[in-house]
Amino acid sequence: MKRVSRSIVLIGMMGAGxxxxxxxxxxRTGLGLLDTDEIVASKFGMSIxxxxxxxxxxxxxxxxxKALRSMQTEEGxxxxxxxxxxxxxxxxxILRSQAVIVWLDADEETLFARASRKQSxxxxxxxxxxxxxxxxxxxxxxxxxxxxxFRVDTSVLTDEEAAVAILAKLRRMNPKPKSPIPAKAS
Length: 186
Ligand code: S3P
Prior knowledge:
It is a single chain. This protein has helices spanning 18-29, 36-44, 48-54, 57-70, 89-98, 108-115, 129-147, 159-173, and strands at 7-11, 32-35, 77-80, 99-105, 150-153. The chain has 186 residues and is an alpha/beta fold. The structure holds shikimate-3-phosphate (S3P). Residues 14, 18-19, 37, 48, 82-84, 121-123 line the site of shikimate-3-phosphate. Shikimate-3-phosphate (S3P) binds at residues 14, 18-19, 37, 48, 82-84, 121-123.
């Protein structure tokens, strides 16, 4: 399939603000917004914790990959992903082939504080969620760093400020055209 425009994919740890910054980018650019967690939840007709509990993390991951495959479009789109999207090679290949990949990061305490605001993270339902979070983050940071086109530290930014920072960076990468999204290198 020929791609006429690249998408903006937001990756990063739980609590990085992918969904909320994605919503700000959507409002500011008018591009469509897709959220892999929402797609998977609606396919199963249940919440993410229910999917993990009733079907397993493996089934969730398979559905996440299917959602990414189905998202390949010719239109540039904002795509908010789940924090574990970088765990599978096929996911990375799909994202890299059609998107500018933006890593939303923050300092660990900030990420953990944000991630634990909601009880909707099955991976943090452990005896020591703080320690679990630290282990997952330690394992994933190199993966995010490896796949991202650039990183935005949101520790002291609001969601709107993070969106503005992303768009400014994209414009610097692609100063001329109307679209803030750099064209795919041929
Ligand atoms: C996950 C993060 C969640 C969700 C699922 C697994 C992870 O999304 O996809 O609970 O492996 O980090 P958020 O990053 O939006 O919390």
